[in-house]
Design a protein that fits this description.
By secondary structure, the protein is of the alpha/beta class. It is built from 16 helices and 15 strands. Belongs to the class-I aminoacyl-tRNA synthetase family.
Length: about 500
């Protein structure tokens, strides 16, 4: 099946046909760097990281552009409040953003432009829009005249007349129509500024993305992404100014991720249910947060709560525990090839799962990057792998070869999702260490009781074995028995 993506512009899933065969250009709106990033930013950036990774995995030569908005009212206001230059604020939070994204395991985009490095291109587009009658200068400001672009609001499907009826010109604005938007703002005393044909000033928010995307991807490119909150006005205005200036289609496929809810309520600073990425990562492993985000389709809303993060961590533990068991098995003997008829029934089932794993994973991701379905395919393979491991005593050469193949496939597909990059034993140990900091039994005591239980069961004293299991369970420790021995995890 060919890759199909949901295009916000058409409201339908469409087969992806690249503008240039074998290549894919993608622009994603980055952050305004005036504060630490929240989990809404985490979701958007993880989502488009996965899309970037999958396009590359599918064989496309991807140019991925993600910008920094480093000049904005919020940045200026914070700089004034702290008594520093705006660049001090911008640089501080660019560095913080980069740190957060690195912790979440994001691949670096091809290009990460800053708005202030593209002032010349911004001015050039504005001059073109004025010359074509799409924009006008008003006392040092420049505005886009929305009534000159008949297709305005084609992305958000809103009605211009209805919106104009309820709109008004704010105090200090010098525009003709309340729906017109700023392309250039004359600077106020004490604000940063650049010279322009309309006097000293700075760019509006929307125009910067048109300039940066055109610079690196051309006048028309494949994908433009961001959160659903950017559909209007930001992306709508990008279309108007870009197509107004160039006279051609701006973006072919518009992709938007869903909102993050907090305990079933929309995340909002005004509601006080606002969490930074750093606050979340103080409590949860970064890969757990990433796994949680990928557990829902990117266009669906996702409900953030400690319970849902706990559930995500449990799911990730299941996979890492399986991978750790595979590693332990493969350490015993080097895998070799052998006829498939030496496989046990569970191994034969796993062989079939292995043959289907990549095609089914690709089928899921080709259906509008359905990471939730792709994870479901991986979990099915984990279940079959655990059955295979449970019945594998002294493994045959064919069984070892199969185990090595499954391990390699999880590494390959995990890299597409940005998961399973840690050593399984090390990751599990780190998670256990974090959990055991909250329980009242030491790891060495757990191990001692596991040995005692094994000896009791060997002596057929099953009552004592059950007592030890129940004792540990009361303390939040779950025992996991397998053919390779007994391991434990904190619940």
């Amino acid at each position: 099946m060919a890759l199909r993506v949901y295009n916000t512009l058409s409201g339908e899933k469409e087969t992806f046909v690249p503008l240039t065969p074998g290549k894919a250009g993608m622009y994603v709106c980055g952050v305004t760097v005036y504060d630490y990033c929240h989990i809404g930013h985490a979701r958007a950036n993880v989502v488009f990281d996965i899309i970037y990774r999958y396009l590359a995995y599918a064989g496309y030569d991807v140019t991925y552009v993600r910008n920094y908005t480093d000049i904005d009212d919020k940045i200026i206001n914070r700089a004034i409040k702290e008594g520093v230059d705006y660049r001090t604020i911008a640089d501080r939070y660019i560095e913080a953003f980069d740190e957060d994204m690195a912790r979440l395991g994001l691949a670096k985009p091809t290009v990460e432009p800053k708005a202030t490095d593209h002032i010349g291109g911004i001015i050039g587009i504005i001059e073109t829009l004025i010359a074509k009658g799409h924009a006008y200068e008003s006392e040092g400001d420049v505005y886009y005249a929305v009534d000159t672009f008949p297709e305005y609001l084609k992305l958000s499907k809103r009605n211009l007349e209805d919106m104009q009826a309820g709109a008004r010109v704010e105090i200090g604005e010098k525009k003709r129509n309340p729906m017109d938007f700023a392309l250039w703002k004359g600077s106020k005393p004490g604000e940063p500024w650049w010279n322009s044909p309309w006097g000293q000033g700075r760019p509006g928010w929307h125009i910067e993305c048109s300039a940066m995307s055109m610079e690196f991807l051309g006048k028309t490119f494949d994908f433009h992404g961001g959160g659903k909150d950017l559909v209007f006005p930001h992306h709508e205005n990008e279309i108007a100014q870009s197509e107004g200036a160039n006279g051609c289609q701006f973006v072919r496929y518009w992709l938007h991720n869903g909102f993050v809810n907090i305990n079933s309520e929309k995340m909002s600073k005004s509601l006080g249910n606002f969490f930074t990425i750093r606050e979340v990562l103080d409590k949860f492993d970064p890969e757990t947060l990433r796994f949680f985000i990928l557990s829902a389709h990117y266009r669906s809303p996702i409900d953030f709560s400690d319970q849902n993060l706990d559930d995500a961590q449990s799911g990730l533990e299941r996979i890492y525990s399986c991978l750790a068991a595979l590693d332990a098995l493969l350490l015993k003997t080097e895998p070799t090839t052998a006829p498939d008829d030496s496989l046990t029934p569970a191994a034969a089932d796993l062989q079939e799962k292995a043959d289907q794993l990549v095609p089914r994973f690709v089928e899921a991701m080709d259906d509008d990057f359905n990471s939730a379905q792709a994870l479901g395919v991986l979990f099915e393979t984990v279940r079959s792998t655990n059955r295979f491991l449970a019945e594998t005593g002294a493994p045959s050469p064919a069984a070892l070869s199969l185990a090595a193949r499954i391990r390699q496939l999880f590494s390959e597909l995990g890299s597409v999702l940005g998961l399973f990059g840690s050593g399984p034993a090390e990751w599990l140990a780190a998670v256990q260490a974090a959990k055991t900091g909250q329980i009242d039994i030491q790891p060495e005591d757990i191990e001692r009781l596991i040995v005692e239980r094994a000896e009791a069961r060997k002596a057929k004293d099953f009552k004592r074995g059950d007592e030890i299991r129940d004792l540990l369970l009361e303390k939040g420790i779950q025992l996991l028995d397998s053919a390779q021995g007994t391991t434990w995890k904190a619940k």
